[in-house]
Design goal:
By secondary structure, this protein is an alpha+beta fold. It is 52% helix and 13% strand. The chain contains seven helices and eleven strands. Helix 1 (2-22) packs antiparallel against helix 2 (28-69) and helix 2 runs antiparallel to helix 4. It is rod-shaped, with a radius of gyration of 48 Å. 12% of the residues are buried.
């Protein structure tokens, strides 16, 4: 649970830190937003430490104590078997006496019931005028024998009870010894539980962690320093009416603006058949398109969807990478792929080792360590304009960024080439 919570905080912090960096927010309020993402990172680190302590110190202590105090037999715990055997050993002699008492009790009750029945029968015979003297005499003899048997069984029953009473104290003493053994073990278990809960509480109590305290104080300090008017003025000075204007100005031709060719590498337009040289270094600043609004020439990329591009110019920062082994996304915003799948890397690896990529039209996150650069070199996308002498060509982040220069007449041409 701690690990899942920390991972969720990390993802939330990464998402909103990226959103803040790409948003038009600036000034003091931007600092407040960044302090919130920093707090989420700190909280995640704190809970990762909690998880480490719980899975390390606490769990290891529990395993060690369990292995030291409990040993498993085939089906039961050794300590449980020993306790049961100890109680059975003490109970065995007393139980034998108890069985004898129950047997004597049963015999006495049977003799007493027989005697009562014979007495009732004799009373009936004496009141019946049809009863013969011989029958009456036989019944009285039977009654006499029953009385004798009743007295014997009664005495035997009392003797068995006396024997059991004499063994009771010894039974109590021996059972007390066995019971105290169990109580001693139970006391150790309960003391260990109390200590474990105390350690657990100490580790999960993050309220006094200085990292969280500092993070909360930074957020509060940032809120106290927020100045809406100053933020609005700063935004106006950097991207609004107060920004410095870079109006086009006349530039004299400079013969030193030349670019050495990169070997014999050339680029060919398949429609016109023209060949173009590729250069190591980018063209000078005056060759790039000037904009009076300080270089903000792509409004859509500044304010629009980062994953949408003009139809005539595909994204130039994409890198093809290959999955080195299977990976199943644990969260909804993570990609799932198999070994050998080709992904398009959209962003550079962040500080936590994650990249944003594209697979089968689905965009999401994936661990950078699961993929490597494709064995074939990256596709290079180039776009040439009839009105500009600079044609930008982009390779992967691990290859050189090259610039191609040519003139296509009056039409705009889109072409691609690959390195092998």
């Amino acid at each position: 649970m701690e690990l899942k919570y920390a991972k969720g905080l990390k993802q939330w912090s990464r998402k909103w830190e990226d959103a803040t960096n790409k948003s038009p927010e600036c000034g003091s309020l931007e600092q407040v937003m960044k302090s919130m993402t920093a707090e989420a990172n700190e909280t995640a680190d704190v809970h990762l430490d909690v998880r480490q302590k719980l899975s390390g110190a606490v769990l290891d202590t529990i395993k060690h104590w369990k292995n030291s105090n409990y040993q498993k037999t085939f089906v039961k715990w050794k300590q449980t078997v020993a306790a049961n055997e100890g109680f059975e050993k003490v109970q065995r002699p007393w139980a034998k006496r108890f069985v004898k008492v129950e047997k004597a009790k049963k015999a006495y009750h049977l003799a007493a019931r027989t005697l009562e029945q014979l007495k009732g029968q004799l009373d009936i015979y004496e009141r019946d005028p049809m009863t013969t003297t011989d029958s009456l005499k036989k019944l009285k003899d039977k009654l006499s024998r029953s009385e004798t048997e009743n007295d014997k069984s009664k005495d035997k029953y009392k003797d068995r009870l006396n024997e059991l009473d004499m063994a009771n104290q010894q039974y109590i003493n021996e059972m007390t010894v066995e019971f105290e053994k169990c109580q001693s073990m139970e006391k150790l278990r309960m003391e260990f539980c109390v200590k474990t809960v105390e350690d657990y509480l100490k580790y999960i109590d993050v309220s006094k962690d200085p990292r969280l305290t500092n993070s909360f104080q930074n957020i509060q300090h940032g809120l106290n320093e927020v100045s809406i008017e100053e933020d609005l003025k700063k935004y106006a000075d950097s991207k609004g009416t107060g920004m410095q204007m870079l109006w086009p100005a006349f530039t004299e031709y400079d013969q030193s603006d030349s670019y050495p060719p990169l070997g014999n590498l050339q680029m060919k337009d398949t429609d016109s058949g023209n060949h173009f040289n590729v250069y190591d270094d980018p063209p000078p600043a005056h060759a790039a398109k000037k904009n009076p609004f300080n270089g903000f020439d792509d409004v859509d990329s500044e304010w629009g969807d980062n994953n949408s591009y003009p139809a005539s110019q595909p994204p130039t920062n994409q890198v093809k990478v290959m999955a080195m082994f299977d990976y199943h996304g644990a969260e909804a915003d993570e990609l799932t792929f198999k070994e050998g799948d080709l992904l398009v890397q959209l962003d550079e690896e962040d500080e936590n080792g994650w990249c944003r990529g594209l697979l089968h039209g689905v965009e999401g996150l994936y661990p950078a360590a699961t993929c490597s650069a494709s064995s074939r070199s990256r596709a290079v996308t180039c776009c040439a304009s009839s009105r500009s002498s600079a044609v930008a060509c982009s390779v992967s982040s691990r290859s050189r960024v090259v610039m191609a220069s040519s003139y296509f007449g009056s039409s705009e041409t889109l072409f691609y080439f690959e390195y092998y």
